[in-house]
Amino acid sequence: MRYLTFALGKGRLASKTLEMFEKIGITCEEMKDKDTRKLIFVNEELKLRFFLAKGPDVPTYVEYGAADIGIVGKDTILEEGRNIYEVLDLGFGKCRMCVCGPQSAEELLKHHELIRVATKYPKIAKDYFYNTKHQTVEIIKLNGSIELAPIVGLSEVIVDIVETGSTLRENGLNVLEEVCPLSARMVVNQVSMKMEQERISKLIDNLRTVLTEA
Ligand code: PRP
């Protein structure tokens, strides 16, 4: 039996994933050590390997087959646009991709003004404004703290993730439009899905059972 390799998005997604995997009997003790600098973890008994990667790199590892399976946010899947199968909504990491800004920007959106949109997700923002709303905008790519942009006058609105809404509230911004709901998803390499169909389907079925019981 060959190893099945999992790429997990670093951080909260990874720990939530491991919690869920434990419920179906998949454990990886050495991965729980928070201080470890190790990059790859093995469960010899089950012939599984796990590694942690930056979220946006997970679909890349999976598309190229360096990982058979990935756990990553829907935002990253949409933004990266890789050739991979999305097979399961894991139900955690729930949040929303939204257009946000000061209340005054609502009028600009309504009248399809040529506004500037700051975002970490240019592909999602472009798709939303051009293909869904048919509004021409200027997209400005940023790498973090997106909420700053409308405050300091870099853009009129932002496209960003909203979870609790507290970042927006504390900065005097509002959700103006919802782009799409988000959560953690399982993705699979297209060749692995055929070659390891039995093991992967069983894994998906077991996770589905846990999800329906929750
Ligand atoms: C994300 C997102 C928002 C915030 C939303 O940022 O970009 O800024 O979380 O969460 P809330 O609605 O619960 O306040 P993250 O902390 O990942 O960092 P970043 O701003 O550097 O992207």
Automatic annotation (TrEMBL):
Its EC number is 2.4.2.17. It is an enzyme of class 2 (transferase). It catalyses: 1-(5-phospho-beta-D-ribosyl)-ATP + diphosphate = 5-phospho-alpha-D-ribose 1-diphosphate + ATP. InterPro entries: ATP_PRibTrfase_cat, ATP_PRibTrfase_CS, ATP_PRibTrfase_HisG, ATP_PRibTrfase_HisG_short. It is found in: Cytoplasm. Pathway: Amino-acid biosynthesis; L-histidine biosynthesis; L-histidine from 5-phospho-alpha-D-ribose 1-diphosphate: step 1/9. One of its GO terms (molecular function) is ATP phosphoribosyltransferase activity. Keywords: Amino-acid biosynthesis, ATP-binding, Cytoplasm, Glycosyltransferase, Histidine biosynthesis, Nucleotide-binding, Transferase. Transmembrane segments: none annotated. The keyword Nucleus does not apply. Residues 56-208 form the ATP phosphoribosyltransferase catalytic domain. Lacks the C-terminal regulatory region which is replaced by HisZ. Belongs to the ATP phosphoribosyltransferase family. Short subfamily. HAMAP family: HisG_Short. Heteromultimer composed of HisG and HisZ subunits. Catalyzes the condensation of ATP and 5-phosphoribose 1-diphosphate to form N'-(5'-phosphoribosyl)-ATP (PR-ATP). Has a crucial role in the pathway because the rate of histidine biosynthesis seems to be controlled primarily by regulation of HisG enzymatic activity. This is ATP phosphoribosyltransferase. It comes from Brotonthovivens ammoniilytica.
